[in-house]
Amino acid sequence: MITHPAPPPRQRRGLPHWQAVLLLGVALFLIYAQTGHYGYIDFDDTAYIEDNLMVRRGLSLEGVRWAFSSFYAANWHPLTWLSHMADVSLFGMDLGAHHLVNVALHGAVSVLLYALVIALLARRDAALAAAMLFLVHPQHVESVAWLAERKDLLCALFYLAALLAYVRFARAPSRGRMVTVLVLYALALLSKPMAVTLPVVLLILDLWPLERASAAGTSLMQRVWPLLREKIAFIPLTLGACVLTVVAQGRSGAISSLVSMGPQDRLLNAFVSYGFYLRDFALPTRLGVFYPFGSIDFLTELLPATVALLGVASLCLCLRRRHPGLLAGFAWFVLTLLPVIGLVQVGSQARADRYMYIPSIGLVLGLVSLLPAAQGRARRLGLAAVFIASAFWGLLCYLQVGYWESPEVLYKRTADVTRDNVFAETRLLDIQIARGDLAAAEERARRIVARFPGRYEGHMSLGEIELARGNPTEAEQWFKAAQERAPSHWHVLNDLGIAVLQQGRQAEGCEILLRAQELGGTSALLERNLDAGNCVQYGTTRQAPGNGSGAQ
Q: Last residue of a domain, which of 408, 440, 463?
């Protein structure tokens, strides 16, 4: 039998709600207002908005059908597509307005977290502390300042709304309240499949702070089984989201094979990534947009990550009786990261700051649960620590937002804080080519080819350099070398098709571009290239799911 928690006690001291929300709004404005004049980051923003024909048309019935039926950009998240379409319908291609919608959503998520902590702990001071620490944390900049990560914000919005609805259900169960939780869970899944962890978080909250486990059972399973049985209703939605995600990633080729990344490498990377996520949560001074998967250095990576992960886990276990919130928050962090920790490797990134948007809530909740409720020196020290952490993270957050001002600034920063980052180097190389600095670009590209001969990026860049020089024959050879290393990458096929067309081989070039469209889907760039090559006579273009980057 499930025990139902009593109604929450009267809320303890803290600012009135309107003042707390106003304070959060001021912090949000001071840190993120600068994004109002930002533009695209040419990493998924092109696939999601700039080069996406369906999104650029705004909201329409055809767009709704496409959003629910397409696996474009290696994902299935129809609500995210509809959100981007709504932006275009409301603001056109004013990207500053699109960015500010992201900022507003981040503020809404922070307010929902404030409301959730009020509902769970009945403490305004802890609620404001949790919401502020979440709002100003630099690890969340990627989810807010990157237009393509709208899915993170929407997912978290419905995720927290579902948690709030569940707290109401737990205190006064009814079928209608459970249906509300399930609907909000479905909306979170329609935004991003990472929401599959929500039933596990509900179970964590059942144990602490809701304390719903029955006291009648003699074993842990007997006490927890009624709670597990209650979660059966979530299984169909969870399984459906998992299947659709695997299909989307599998069709795009984004899921790495066991040949390129063995099980031992995956496990080691997952373990080290947990440690790095904790390190960057506490000291977020070396954040980048892309962390490449590669060899792990024992002294600088494996050892610090092991100390961080095992140290925090041991501390939470030792203090589990006096401070159960620490263990509950740590479990939230570990379990919500599990779908994206790399055991099933998607893409070539080792980890990503955006993956911490929901998991970090557990760490924040655990920390604020330590705040003493009673007046006294300990409480004053706790609040002072929250203020210092908020100011420190807020300053770092403001600086981190600044790195997203332009692709060049972002990729330079990423290259500085990571090692062997072919992604960042290649993006900087593309900027050099666009500027016409072809000699410097060639030097950088040949260094990439020499260091990473098995990667396609350097070969593709050398082909682009030869195209810019007016040498399509030489460019074709480089693009074919890139195609051997990345046969399913539609951008490579697109460039190869252009090189072939420029040599006067129209039928062959159009065939290559049509193959690229089968992979690239609703791409404005491909449409323009097909029109420029007069390729209609060689076949009917087919709109198919694109592979995008595979970013989640």
A: 408
Does the pLDDT value for residue 542 go beyond 50? Answer: no
pTM to 2 decimal places: 0.91
Rounded-to-integer distance, Cα 439 and Cα 433, Å = 9
And the tokens for 523? Answer: 């791409």
Mean predicted lDDT score pLDDT of the chain: 90
Residue that the structure tokens 């209703």 belong to: 233
Please check whether residue 122 is in contact with residue 48, taking contact to mean a CB–CB distance below 8 angstroms. Answer: no
Is there a domain that residue 548 lies in? Answer: no
Element (H, E) at 379: helix 377-402
Predicted confidence band of residue 74 (pLDDT cuts 50, 70, 90):
confident
Distance, in Å, from the CA atom of 404 to the CA atom of 400, rounded to the nearest integer, reads 7
Asked if the structure places residue 544 within a domain, the reply is no
Do 132 and 184 lie in one domain? The reply is yes
Q: Which domain holds residue 302?
A: 17-408
The answer to whether residues 351 and 421 belong to one domain is no
The answer to the question of residue 1 being in a domain is: no
Residue 82 Cα to chain centre, angstroms = 18
Q: Which residues contact 391 (CB under 8 A, 6 or more apart)?
A: none
Phi-psi region of 41 (alpha: psi -120 to 50; beta: other; left: phi over 0): beta
- Cα 225–chain centre separation: 33
Q: Would you say residue 193 lies in a domain?
A: yes
Considering just the CA atoms, what is the radius of gyration of the chain in Å?
A: 25
The verdict on 293 and 420 lying in the same domain is no
At position 98, the amino acid (one-letter code) is H
Tell whether 156 and 269 lie within a shared domain: yes
Q: What is the pLDDT of residue 506?
A: 92
What are the angstrom distances between the C-alpha of 143 and each of 150, 244, 400, 549? 7, 23, 12, 16
Is the preceding peptide bond at 372 cis, omega within 30 degrees of 0?
Answer: no
